[in-house]
Specification:
Elements: E1 4-5, H1 6-12, E2 17-21, E3 24-28, E4 37-42, E5 46-49, E6 54-59, E7 62-67, E8 71-74, E9 77-83
Parallel strand pairs: 1-4
Antiparallel strand pairs: 2-3, 4-9, 5-8, 6-7, 6-9
């Protein structure tokens, strides 16, 4: 499994709707990854607001599930993201 650089992947993917203001990156997208578990890391803290779907982030601090309407804050570093495919995320 290859560890994904979340920030650079989102920033450089032309199919994602993004807005950069200074060193802040805002993105809206449907997750294209079809793996049940995804290893990722980022050099920046980040927020996730879920419009639809479901995922669970496994970090050194615990397991953080998210469903439609949830907003989560993550510190920079690595995580394993567990994906569910009932509804697009």
């Amino acid at each position: 499994m290859v560890m994904l650089n979340l920030y650079e992947t989102v920033r450089s993917n032309p199919s994602f709707n993004t807005l950069e203001i200074g060193n802040m990156l805002f993105a809206e997208y449907t997750c294209p990854v079809q793996a049940a578990k995804l290893e990722q890391w980022t050099q920046s803290d980040y927020l996730v607001h879920v419009l639809q779907g479901k995922k669970a982030w496994h970090t050194s601090d615990g397991i953080w599930p998210a469903v439609s309407g949830d907003t989560l804050f993550f510190r920079k570093g690595g995580a394993i993201v567990e994906q569910y495919f009932d509804v697009d995320f």
